[in-house]
Each structure stands twice: as C-alpha cells, then as structure tokens.
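Margin note: ligand = flavin-adenine dinucleotide.
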Amino acid sequence: MRRRIGVVGAGWTGAVAGRLLTDAGFAVEVLEKTSVVGGHSRAETMNGVVYEPNGAHIFHTDNEAVNQFVNSHGLTRPYDHKVLTEVFLSPDDDEGHLLSWPPQVEELKELPVWPKVEQELASLPPYPTGDNFEDYVVSMMGRTLYDLFIRDYTAKQWGRPATELSARFAPKRVELRRDGHRGLFRDRWQYFPPNGINEVIESVLSTVAVTLDTEITVADADRLGQDYDAVIITAALDDFARCPGELEWRGIEMRSRFEPTDDPGGVHTPAYVTNRPSTRVPYTRTVETKHATGQQIEGTVVSEEMPGAPRRHYPVLTADGANERRNAELAEKIAEHFDIPVYFAGRLATYRYINQDEAIADAMAVAHKVATEQGG
Ligand SMILES: Cc1cc2nc3c(=O)[nH]c(=O)nc-3n(C[C@H](O)[C@H](O)[C@H](O)COP(=O)(O)OP(=O)(O)OC[C@H]3O[C@@H](n4cnc5c(N)ncnc54)[C@H](O)[C@@H]3O)c2cc1C
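Resulting structure:
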C-alpha cells in the first residue's frame, strides 16, 4: 500500500512538497483552511485588474533547481524589479523626491545633503557592524541616509524602534549601491506572471489531492495519525497549537482601491512599489501591480500597505532571538501530540523571513527527507 502523507497548508511550501511527494509515489492530501490555494503569494482581481491583497510578490531566485521547477509550471515571464522611495529632505518640503531604492550613490550626489552624506560615508567602518538594526544600518550608510530612508519606515513597519530589532535581517533588506545596479535584486532569474502567481501554484497542485476549507489544529492529531503515516505542517505554530500570543508577528493590511484610467495602459503611482518612509502618511508603501503585469485594461488598483494589522505576515526577529526559541519549543510540543512523524517547513511554521524561492527550496528539502525516511 502507498504511504500516506498529510500536508497542512496550500501555500508555496505545501503545494511543492505535496507535488514532489505525489510524483514520488506517495498518497498525498493537502489540507487548506481557506477556500483557495496560494497562501500569501496569491493575487486577486478587482474589476478585472490583477492586484495583490497580501503585498507585492516578486519572484526572484539564484537557485537552479527552483528555477527549473517554476519554469516547468509556466513561470517564465522575465521582469526586472525596480523600487522608488519618496524622500522629504526637510520638514518644509512640500513635495518629496523620488529616489531609487536601494539608495544609489550617483543619484545622492545630486542632492543638497550630499556633502554631509559624503563626509559620513568617508568615516564608516570597512564592513557594517552592530547587533541591532539601527547600529548596523548606520554603520553601512551613515546617519543622514538612515534618517531619510530607513528610520521612520522601520518604526512604522515594525511598531518599535530599530534599536530593538535584530541586525540579522538587515543584509537582506538594506544596501547602499555604489555600482549603479538599479534593480532591487541581483538574482539570475526574476519573473512576474501576467495574471498573478495563482495559475502557477494551481499547476503545481494539478495532480495533488487538495481539500479546501479545512483548518487543522493540534486537536486533530489523533485523527491525522489514523489518516496518514506522516504529516508536514506549514501553518504558524502558535495558531496551530491554539496558543495565540505565544509568538510575535507583524502583519499588514493592503488598503486597495480601484482607480479609473484614461487608457488601458494607464497607471496612478510612479512605480509598482514606491516606499513611503515619511511619517506624513501612515502607510509604508504603495503597490500598483499593473506596472509589473503590464495588463492592458481600463482602470488600475492602488494599494496602500498599512503596517500593524493583526495578521501573521512577518516573524519578529528581535535582537535576543527569543521568538525563534519559542517557535522551536512549540514545534517540540506539537510533535509530542502525534504518534506519527511530524515535519515542519515554510515561512510560518519555521518562523523565518523567507521568500518564495526559499519556501520552494524548503519544500524540496522536506519532501526529500520525508521520501528518505518514510519510503515510497
Ligand atoms: C507582505 C509580504 C510580502 C512578500 N513579498 C515577497 C516577494 O516580493 N518575493 C518573494 O519571493 N516572497 C515574498 N514574500 C514571502 C512569501 O509570501 C513567502 O515566502 C511564501 O508565501 C511562503 O509560502 P508558505 O507556503 O511557507 O506560507 P503561506 O504562503 O503563508 O501558506 C501557508 C498556507 O497554510 C494555510 N494554513 C495556515 N494555517 C492552517 C491550518 N491551521 N490548517 C490548514 N491550512 C492552514 C494558509 O491559509 C496558507 O494557504 C512576502 C511575504 C509577505 C508577508
């Protein structure tokens, strides 16, 4: 008889793990609590315009196996992601300056604050240092650029001063560009699907049994033990274990609105993603997905990204690593409720700040582990 694997969650991680194990001969069932697949990466439409209710999602990777996998499911349309930031140089400025993100030294040289910035850059250490986010970033770009681009954005985004945040995720988020490379990413492959990512994830799941509208919690452990020989959990562990508040999360709410346009190619904001670090607005950025899809349709959807929503979007990586430790403890406690092997994978269950390609790589690793340990 084929070995049976239950997978909790139909985002990238659950979908890819489910697909690979199905291909390897396991009897897989993916259990998803909502009525749709795709998790955080999912796109929706408003009056026919594709937009992203969970924030901008750009697919980029340097991982050859991941690239081949997504190509084989139709994700091939090249895209070069460029971000702008609206910066106010002084409190009296009526209009902000639209500058590249990450900051580009060549552009900064045109600004009146350049002499001060130049002086600060000259006295930086050879490599960024510091345990907390603020110290690390100031040591990378100096105080003036930190104040203009980072300080208020970070406080809005995380709801706490940057001094309380870990420097661990700074290298992934912040850079000062001296080489003129304008794209946000340097990965070999970057794509944006014209209709949103859903059809790619649906292709991944096309041969996998998926049961929607089914929320699984630790209370289902006995039943899962009867139905499957092993289970992979991609859900947030504090939610799965029914102990909300045990882990800290930061969430966003995309306030999305339809705007008419004069012509089918029309857009409303300067870029797909425009960072808005200023405290003059409560949101952190605007997202207009039509820039990336290139959709030819009358109208557009602009989303303002409001931080601080009670949703599980971002793990909060504090300088002391306390939340990561609590997540590891929760994983151990959850596993004790099961009589079958339990595996944890993906962004939520492992409480890591990972991108879609890393979630896919995680799924590949867990599928390999399950196949090796559970037999085909
Ligand atoms: C605001 C934001 C912007 C991002 N931007 C990018 C980007 O530009 N590029 C990029 O590559 N990545 C980006 N990411 C990261 C990307 O969203 C994740 O890496 C990816 O979605 C992780 O997939 P996952 O399957 O691990 O988790 P998810 O996508 O969260 O999927 C988990 C699934 O499990 C389901 N589920 C949860 N609990 C249960 C339960 N108890 N029972 C059953 N089902 C359950 C959920 O409904 C969901 O479908 C961004 C993330 C956020 C939050």
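The radius of gyration is 22 Å.
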